[in-house]
Amino acid sequence: MRDAFVQTTVDLLENDPRTALVLADISADRFVDAARRHPDRVLNVGIREQLMVGVAGGLALTGMRPIVHSYATFAVDRTYEQLKLDLDHQGVGAIVVTVGASYDGAEMGRTHLSPADVALIDTLTGWTVHVPGHPAEVPALLRAAAQHDGPVYLRLSTQVNDLPRPDAGQLAVVHRGSPVAPVVVAVGPMLHPVLQAVTGLDVTVTYTHTPRPFDVGGLRELLPAPDGAVAPAVVLVEPYLAGTSSAVLSEGLSDVPHRLLALGVGRADLHRYGSPADHARWHGLDPAGLRRSVSAFLG
């Protein structure tokens, strides 16, 4: 996904004079040639992530379309105040593109883990959030974000699905169960493990790479009608903090009886290094863990 982001950004810098890129050392080696060609629009501020967002806010005030990029823990967690003040408060937008996801950088320890990034973005105003599940989904999402001035968060990961599904801005049905089947919502790279986990279960599996704004209308259309005392079931599987989208779904389904199981990264600091696969297993987000949780919930 990072390669797709770099190539698309280079193309935007070449062809759209509004595009600017602000870095804080991370991935600067990928943009050396672009910086030579566009020294006024490719800026590396060094290891100063708060300044990176501040500069982006200033560029946006002049009519530029800035892209800022770093690990999620540095570009969101560390810079939250600047996102709140230099972008949100001033009424301007930028495209924040991150790598590292929740635990892609697990071998570097807690400093590089960011499971709460989307929850933090949710406290700001009107952000679009893209969580692609495949590298081939990245270019179109980034190009679309470059065409407007709103705030956009593009969350890249080394965890990928088997196939791209570029038209999943709204909920896309990947596997349809019976008319009374519960609905499983897989966000971004969670689709592949979800499909493995629910093999043989009567569920409808849906996918989105754009959880904000969340396609509540699409979910409502897929929910089976209540059957007596049994409310329709929804299973939400996100690659970041468990329950991040629960409030959005609960508000959108406030007039619809339903049961919700929200799966994602747990809140506990595990104090472990390990690999992304290890963390997925520890948080119950591998196929076996998801199977246990979904089966228990559905009874």
CATH fold naming of the largest domain: Rossmann fold
> In terms of per-residue confidence, which ranges show pLDDT below 50 for 5 or more consecutive residues?
none
How many domains make up the coordinates? 2
Strand order of the largest sheet: 2-1-3-4-6-5
Question: How many separate helices?
Answer: 12
CATH superfamily of the largest domain: Thiamin diphosphate (ThDP)-binding fold, Pyr/PP domains
At CATH level 2, the architecture of the largest domain is 3-Layer(aba) Sandwich
Radius of gyration: 19 Å
Structural class computed from helices and strand pairing: alpha/beta
Fraction in helix: 25-40%
Organism: Plantactinospora sonchi
InterPro entries: PDH/Transketolase, THDP-binding, Transketo_C/PFOR_II, Transketolase-like_Pyr-bd
Domain Transketolase-like pyrimidine-binding: 1-164
Protein name: Transketolase
Write up this protein:
It is built from twelve helices and eleven strands. It starts with a helix and ends with a helix. By secondary structure, it is α/β, with parallel strands linked by helices. The strands form two sheets. It has a six-stranded parallel beta sheet, sandwiched between helices. The protein has helices at 2-15, 32-37, 49-61, 72-77, 80-89, 117-121, 138-146, 191-197, 216-222, 246-252, 276-282, 287-298, and strands spanning 19-23, 42-44, 65-71, 95-99, 128-130, 152-155, 172-175, 183-187, 204-208, 233-241, 259-265. 45% of the residues are buried. The longest helix has 14 residues, at 2-15. It has two domains: 2-155, Thiamin diphosphate (ThDP)-binding fold, Pyr/PP domains (Rossmann fold, 3-Layer(aba) Sandwich); 172-298, Rossmann fold. Helix 1 (2-15) packs parallel to helix 7 (138-146), helix 3 packs parallel to helix 5 (80-89) and helix 8 (191-197) packs across helix 12 (287-298). The model has no long low-confidence stretch (mean pLDDT 96).
